[in-house]
Amino acid sequence: MAIKIKEAAELAGISIRTLHHYDHIGLLSPTHSTESGYRLYTDKDMETLQQILFFKELGFSLKRIKEIINSPSFDRREALQLHRKRLLEKRDQLDQMIVTVEKTIQHMEGEIHMSNKEKFEGFRFDEFKKDPYEQEARERWGDQAVDESKAKVYKMSPQEQRNFTENMNEIYRALADLRHTSPASEESQKAIEEWYRFLNKMGSYSLDAFKGLGQMYVQDERFTKNIDQFGEGLAQFMCEAMAIYADNKKKRK
User: What's the predicted TM-score (pTM) here?
Assistant: First the structure.
């Protein structure tokens, strides 16, 4: 059964203006309309609207939502299962933060003592998901590698995200210990190979893309600043080691 736009808006808890906007940008255009021009939303249209609102709740932009739901590979059931997983994680996080707030109140009133670690229980460690260099990466290597990487991170549980970040930092620390040696040494090349393998667990980085990423480490001061937190000169060392690794691998092919 098809319903008019006013009823669709009321059911979804959004404004008629919002539905007009979705229609205007091609995100959700109603399947039918009356002879007098009133938009009519079918059950399938409402299912699509529900999916849009799920993605919005999880922080996706309208442009990205449009790309996802219009993709030939889009699987609504899989998307719903993923939404459910993320919402359950969000609920668990909120429950933990409520406990932290309650304990903080008790701590302030002198009823209990909180350690510094306890004061931050429940906060998310999502900073690595907010990639400030995403646009540069897309421009250099296209969308595929970036989208694959973001999709894999998005599907991780909070514990998996923490493990991912720690594994990444371990590689940085190991490379930092070698930064005063030759980037062409056997030990340096073994360490940089770990970085190459790590990146390819998250996306599809060719040897050229790997070498280009290393160049960005020294060409973009934001990269340099973040990487050199593990040791001054690390970004330059990684750039040189990554170039040597990529060139050597290409010669052997």
Answer: 0.46
